[in-house]
Request: fold
Amino acid sequence: MTTPRVAILGAGFSGLCMGIRLREAGIASFAIYEKADRVGGTWRDNVYPGICCDVPSHLYSFSFAPNPDWSRLYAPGEEIQAYCERVARDFGLAPHLRFGAEVVRVDWTGDEWRIAFADGSEERADFVVSGLGALHRPSTPAIPGLERFRGASFHSARWDTAHDVAGERVAVVGSAASAIQIVPEIAGRASHVTVFQRTPNWILPRRDRAYPAWCKRLFRLVPLAQRLHRLWIYLNMEWRVFAFEQEGFLSAPLERMCRAHIAKQVADPELRATSTPDYRPGCKRILVSDDWFDAIQRDDVAIETSAIERVEERGIVTADGALHEVDTIVWATGFEPFSLLAPLVVTGRDGRRLDETWAEGIEAHRTVAVAGYPNFFMLLGPNSGLGHNSIILIIEAQARYVLQLIRAAMRPDGSIARIEPRPDATAAFNRDIQERLATTIWKSGCRSWYMDERGRVYTLWPGSTLRYLWTMRRPRLAEYERRAAQGAVA
Reply:
């Protein structure tokens, strides 16, 4: 039987998981193309002060690669990066990793995929699996005058590690996931921090803690204890899905919990009002922090809610005409959610580009495949994000599913068929997705990066992880077309 050539794009959690699954299946003819010089993806690129995961460590790790030595309930970023490097080493991925290999386009030739790299070289593959993820391109708003600023300016995902903010006046633009980690870390080191907030976020306590030595020793000696601990974390997070139903029995208690947390943490009525969102919890991402509210109540930290009008040489001018003089601007403004695979260009059958296919709405079949793009799969594709649990669960399920599709394309005569979802099956799947999303908190009226400009939520899975795992347990091959390279039905 022909050994399939598989190209995996990206060496973050998704790419590593896909490579491991292929090796376990006895398929060694794959390469993981990574533009950087190390594995890790998000955790390699984001090195800002205070970075850590908002999912507990024992669940934000592969089920098949437990780590008994996590230092804390919520691991810091460098520890997660070290975990990625250890997994790549322990599972023998080194021979398959191609660093410094930035893929700029992939084109279907009718028989195979042609992969073009930034340096002008090319490779060929029977299958392409994108592990690029959805949030990998930093978003910096186009604010007039930014080029005139004389101080340091950088995005949180491109933190300048050579720059010391000690004694500086720092502007942090944004008040969401990265900002609530950065500000507590630099407050007290910087002479003053001004947080430019467009919209407040609902925040719950993280309740982080260090794992004592005896606990880590127990996890090493009794693996079942670690598995039970992981299960407890999973169940504790999974119930939250019921809070994301608009009329769910947990949505009102969740809001009361969030409001009580603000009331307990913030003494000043004006700051409390500034910190209280006007939308329901979950409509935008719920954040977790143990030190954000303490930080913004410091005398050397201020929250600015007036909109930014322009940037000048000495700082930021807001809509009320005030000039906020700063030495450094940190753009904690998130990522571009609508450029799911950009800047990668994907061209499928009939020369049609994927961005053209998605012009009227981003969608995929079973969150991993697109009609018209044979033998092309995505991990963390459309509607596979979560608002309540660990994305690693989704990655593992998708890698298993994609592996089954690759096997289904391998014909008894040794050839490799083209496999792609049927358009009608894709339409039915996404119709069901959108119908279920219509009754969730994400469609309750606020604007978030979860939805496109038309108000269609294309990022999140509208239900429990258990339902997703059941849906993805095996492909329904009747939903797919399998054809030989010449076009005959396989």
